[in-house]
Amino acid sequence: MQKITVSANEAGQRLDKLLGKYLSNAPMSFVYKMLRKKNIKLNGKKAQGNEKLTKGDLVEVFLSDDTWQKFAGAPGAEKQLPADLARAMKSSIRLSVIYEDPDILILNKPSGMLSQKAAPSDLSLNEYMIAYLLKKGDLKLAELATFRPSVCNRLDRNTSGLVTAGKSLAGLQQLSEILRDRTVKKYYLTIVDGVIKDRQKIEVTIPVKGNIIRSEQVSNDMYVSIDLVEEVIERQLRKYKNKIVDKQQESTNFQKAYLDKDYEEDEEVKIIRTKKFGIKPMYPEDACVQMELLGHNFFVFFNAETEQVNVVYKRKGNTYGLIEPEF
């Protein structure tokens, strides 16, 4: 039997999420089966897996040592520093820390550095930040098995600026919430020098009450491109206003995202087929595997972590995307 006492950085998450980290080599179907058979208990009682954990909770896993080692990984593996973090620890790069407290970090990301990995071999601000915490002693190597600090907002590789990161689970959760709710305001400054020759492309996107007005124009003269964009945007806004008046201010029904170069009456949308299927809780990684097994380009599933319906889809370069609803 294995006993797990929930730490501060493990609290606040679902029980099945925590078990998936400890039993990283086991499919979640095995974890749910052990929960149903009462081989996993929470504070001495039967658990479902969706319980939110608090600091000090006791998780008892009634598995043989061989089974535990099979699904938890090789003995001592949690004491081995991952290769990417080992490289980051040896790097001479020093982070510019703007603000730090026990829960969060605010870092000044330099131009040329990734915020998060684009490929497995990359080193990003995320790895350098974890290496910084390991060197300081604010993070222990053994803790990485169940909790990994992370940046919460991203900037492009060639963009410099402030990036927030969570040192603790509480910090990660709070930062994620205020970024999702747009409580934090983000500002960007672009410096332009000179005049671009040859092709002059101007793109303008305007959000209007949940919809998007957009135009893109290209010419050999920057000012001509600006005038063309202005003309198209003005026409689209006028059409948008007329639609609102025609529908007696029912603007929420107006969901057409891009109107550029399309001034004809909208064709009737016809749904010719409806398909229903059952969905079960799983993690995005498991959903990607299921999508590959089915041979589909996308897969709808119930995210066991967020308890929301999500969609994973294939992208170029053998990568995947995740669509999450925002209310």
Short note summarizing the structure:
It contains eight helices and 14 strands.
What would your notes on this structure say?
By secondary structure, the chain is an alpha+beta fold. The chain contains eight helices and 14 strands. It has helices spanning 15-22, 28-36, 65-72, 83-90, 125-136, 169-180, 222-246, 284-294, and strands at 2-5, 40-42, 45-46, 58-61, 97-100, 104-109, 150-151, 161-166, 200-208, 211-219, 281-282, 298-303, 308-315, 319-323. The strands form four sheets. A four-stranded antiparallel β-sheet has the order 1-4-2-3. A four-stranded antiparallel β-sheet has the order 5-6-8-7. The protein has a four-stranded mixed β-sheet with strand order 11-12-13-14, covered by helices on one side. The two termini are 43 Å apart. Mean pLDDT is 83; it is low at 256-261.
Supply database-style keywords.
globular, 327 residues
List the helices and strands and how they pair.
Elements: E1 2-5, H1 15-22, H2 28-36, E2 40-42, E3 45-46, E4 58-61, H3 65-72, H4 83-90, E5 97-100, E6 104-109, H5 125-136, E7 150-151, E8 161-166, H6 169-180, E9 200-208, E10 211-219, H7 222-246, E11 281-282, H8 284-294, E12 298-303, E13 308-315, E14 319-323
Parallel strand pairs: 11-12
Antiparallel strand pairs: 1-4, 2-3, 2-4, 5-6, 6-8, 7-8, 9-10, 12-13, 13-14
Helix pairs in contact: 4-5
Overall number of strands? 14
Tell me the strand order in the biggest sheet: 1-4-2-3
- The proportion of strand residues reads 15-25%
| H-E string | EHHEEEHHEEHEEHEEHEHEEE
Main beta-sheet strand count, sense and barrel state: 4 strands, antiparallel
Number of helices: 8
Mean pLDDT: 83
- Helix/strand class: alpha+beta
- Proportion of helical residues: 25-40%
